[in-house]
């Protein structure tokens, strides 16, 4: 008759834990997600370390202050951990997380601010070439600072359109504004950034 003794059981658990920790350190998304879902603190730390800088940048683009960005960041990471089991494709982890961070930022903005009601334009004509020339003259850090100084509505639309790749229709739905307002706020944002 075979009986399991305490030392055997402890040794088995430690061996499995060590094997799992080695797999986590390889940064394979599937192993990382499995570790997070089993509440492995090392897996959660690796996930945080791997994506925190990128996701914090998303928060800073939408927030009015660093304090707001920190709040958005904490809420979004909580939602990532809470909803990780819903992720179907481990290879899509980064994009899935970014979507959570953008949506959390937008919800925060909706709760804390009102959008300016710019006049609707049927068509906004921007010269793409002059816009590209202006952007090439400044570095990424300066662009970030300039974007954060934009009025809130312009900043939201600019981030969603230029950085996240949303259409004006999608932006209008997300922010509860008209397509024309989205277009005019993008126009105003670009005009302000060119003048800076």
Concise account of the structure shown:
It is built from ten helices and no strands. It has helices spanning 6-25, 29-37, 41-62, 66-83, 93-112, 128-136, 140-149, 152-163, 168-175, 179-195. Mean pLDDT is 78; it is low at 1-12 and 115-128.
List keywords for this structure.
196 residues; mainly alpha; elongated
Could you explain how this protein is built, in words?
This protein has 196 residues and is mainly alpha-helical. The chain is 74% helix and 0% strand. The chain is built from 10 helices and no strands. Helix 2 packs across helix 3, helix 3 crosses helix 5 and helix 8 crosses helix 10. The chain is elongated. The chain starts with 5 loop residues before the first helix and ends with a helix. The N terminus is likely disordered.
The N- and C-terminal alpha carbons lie at a distance of 82 Å
Mean pLDDT: 78
The count of helical stretches stands at 10
Oligomer: single chain
Largest sheet: none
**Which structural class should the secondary elements be placed in?**
mainly alpha
Which band does the percent of strand residues land in? under 5%
From the spread of the alpha carbons, the general shape counts as: elongated
* H-E string: HHHHHHHHHH
The number of distinct β-strands equals 0
Poorly predicted ranges? 1-12, 115-128
- Considering DSSP H and I runs of 4 or more, what fraction of the residues is helical? over 70%
Calculate Rg over CA atoms: 22 Å
